[in-house]
Amino acid sequence: MESERHTSHSSANHKRHRIEWPTIGLMVLCYGLWIFAGLYLYPSMPILALLLMALAVAFHSSLQHEALHGHPTRNGTINELLVSVPLGMFYPFRRYKHLHLKHHADERLTDPYDDPESYFRALGDWKKLPKPLKILLNWNNTLVGRVIIGPALMVAGFLISEFKLVSGGERKTRNAWVLHLLGLIPMLVVVWALFDIPLWIYTLTAAYWGLSIIAIRTYCEHQWSERPDGRTIIVEKSPLALLFLNNNLHFVHHKRPTAPWYDLPQIYDEQRDEWQRMNGGYVFRNYFEILRAYAFRKKQEVVHPVLRREPATARAFRPRRHGISMQGGSTLPIPAEPPKD
């Protein structure tokens, strides 16, 4: 298949270096911007400082994404340590890594249960939701809604799902949160004691706005298509490309997940027409084009148009685990394989 050919050639013309110094440099820049804004800028220009810290939070999220895909070194522990300071507060790196790598199963993209980053809901779950939440979720499917209320919905759903896992004795999830708290406590001490920023202000501005910035990228990264290759977007050019580490070329990333961020534009440009043909023309020139089209209009319905339309029959399947979503998706049981006679 052509999609497999594109994936198999991921390292043919782009060699992996033992240490990817451009990424190391951006990590230094990210932490430096965060410290400069909090330590030096906040006392005199607090709004500007918090805006810059939000940019640092969003940038750090992009760097975490790079790290979980095996960058900037070939040592996973070192990569984790390099992005372990939780500037964005809400997501343990190991949980993000676990769920995001599951998301890379392209044949399950957009599935309300199997894709941890799907914004779709199963029809049965949707019917059970209270009307006010349905209104919020519909607004969340506009770009303006996603930026304003998306982070709150996402974090609330994720924390509820994670609490259920931890309280149910899921050891790896618990350990991920323990490591997260070990990094979060000293980071918050720095914010409060060294930067003199009230923690509630940092949470509701820098941390929240950082998620809002990332929501611009994730808003319509995936759509439903019968063809898995047609489910992932390409946004060709954007002033935000560096902030997103070229993940606006999202289809290319899904096909070349081990390629470093700085190789993605060249990989795309070398076969631009072929990439666009492969993903069925799910292409936007920039994020302004998306804003004009979907600022206040839903790009898609909340209920998945095809998958999970029918509830699983209790007799036919044994529920085995819960659907955990980075977007606060369903926590209903995912059907396991049919019981053995």
UniProtKB/TrEMBL annotation:
Organism ancestry: Bacteria, Pseudomonadati, Pseudomonadota, Alphaproteobacteria, Hyphomicrobiales
InterPro entries (UniProt xref): FA_desaturase_dom
Domain Fatty acid desaturase: 47-283
Pfam families associated with the record: FA_desaturase
Keywords, alphabetical: Membrane, Transmembrane, Transmembrane helix
Domain of life: Bacteria
Name of this protein: Fatty acid desaturase
Transmembrane segment boundaries: 21-41, 143-165, 177-195, 201-220
Stretches the record annotates as Disordered: 318-341
